[in-house]
Amino acid sequence: MPLVDERELLLPALKERRAVGAFNANNMEMIQAFVWAAEEMTEELGKPVDLIIQLSPGASKYAGWALGAGMVKIVAQETNIRIALNLDHATKLEEIEKALENNFTAVLFDGSSLPLEENIELTRKVVEMCHPRGVPVEAELGKIPKIEDYFSKDEIAHLRSLPAKEAVKIIRERAGKSVEELMAKPEDVEMFVEKTGCDFLAAAFGSIHGIWDDIWPVRVDRLVEIQKRTPLPLVSHGSSGILMTPKDVEEKGIELMEGEGTLLDAIQTGGVTKVNVATILSVSFIQGFIDAYNANPSEKDFRNLGKVARDRVKEKVKEYMRLFAGAIS
Ligand SMILES: [Zn+2]
After folding, report:
1. Distance 100 CA to ligand 1 centre (A)
2. What structural domains does the chain harbor?
3. Does the pTM of the predicted model rise above 0.70?
4. Is the pLDDT at 9 greater than 80, yes or no?
């Protein structure tokens, strides 16, 4: 079927306290993995699983805007899965223009590095560009930092080699206070939503972009406060790094501080309806490719390595889809 309006996916999900996965694609294999995962999960759960495929401006330039969006449109035509195509983290109006030209069905305008007034002003402009074309707008309030804001590449490589519990301790010590200060302030929410006219709100609630595995707790108490001030679907960024379930917390031996919780808590009590997952899928693809190559270093056929990488991504996506549907605890 044709691509759908992202509102059609998120508004019913919010009522039902479930989430829709928004997965970042970087190539054809990842797009296939997402759609096949949704098809298989629809079968497994016995109810339709919706899908948001995201391209960042970087991914759109890597593939070419027309080819990147074109691949998503073609897979959508060939499946019964409802798919929305979102532009992730646009920071320039030209990127929004490109997305509209290429028939994206949602955009995220990220003005979070600007002072609040400028963020509001530019987001309002984006809404004025998009709404007449029937395209909803996600806006960002507070700032969701990157792990690279706090650690060098070498330090990140070291953190990745540590048990989750130790890595979390180190990240808390260096970044914890800053991440907390960057969170969205509940008192800004109503005014921000009203002045911008946005449709979905990516309010920072303690997550960090770019963490490679699910180890990091988030501030569910802040989400609860934000949710009291807006009826809009909330969006989780940096979700690759967020602990998935209370069971996950226990297994990894992470100690939760007051107000903290997992992705499952964020969905079931915090109003999170759209969950963006990027880093962990990129890592899964790379690792699948490396493993397949190491298992057969004389392989000359790209496809035999690509298939393994694609399967890894598909399995990871299915795990998230089970969580978003409330089918694992
Ligand atoms: Zn993000």
Report:
1. 20
2. 6-148+179-324 (3.20.20.70)
3. yes
4. yes
